[in-house]
Amino acid sequence: MNEWQKRRLIEIIIEKSFQYREDPPFVLASGKTSHYYFNCKPTTLDPEGMNLIGEILYSMLANTSVTAAGGLTLGADPMANALSVISYQKGRPIKSFIVRKERKDHGTMSSIEGNVRAGEVVAILDDVITTGGSTIMAIERAKEAGLIVERAIALIDREEGGRENILSHCPRVEAILTRSEIMSVYRGG
Known about the structure:
Elements: H1 3-16, E1 18-20, E2 26-27, E3 33-34, E4 36-38, H2 41-44, H3 47-61, E5 68-72, H4 77-89, E6 95-99, E7 112-114, E8 121-129, H5 133-144, E9 148-157, H6 162-167, E10 173-178, H7 179-186
Parallel strand pairs: 5-6, 5-8, 8-9, 9-10
Antiparallel strand pairs: 1-4, 2-3, 6-7
């Protein structure tokens, strides 16, 4: 990935998706508290942010056997769609798919939405990894659908053990950015 793209993405995240406060600390989905919080939707749904994410994800996956990427709705959806559009424009389409939080209770009763079939090699995406719970849920649902999960990629790894938890379900876990990288820029590094 290009260093300029990475630096610009950090700037957008700090501007649109990052909050810091001492008191009271934020309560995270995991139940833990933290002085900082990443709400990535303002970045992943921003035209420039979405384009940068799509370009970076494409650079990470262009030379792999991955044919589709997706993850648990809602965090992964804009990332997967950005990748899909950029990859199509670059001549090596990577499809996007959605993993439902709850299995459909009618029709096909599927957990996966999109044009993917059993046996396809996929990447699972997530906007933020803290404990890894939502990424692991997406990996498990993808495997139940017969997809081969080659790797997981997060926009941000909070560096709180989630990556290690995910590795017990998936052979490769990567992050576009880490909390440390973002905090270094936030603090003027």
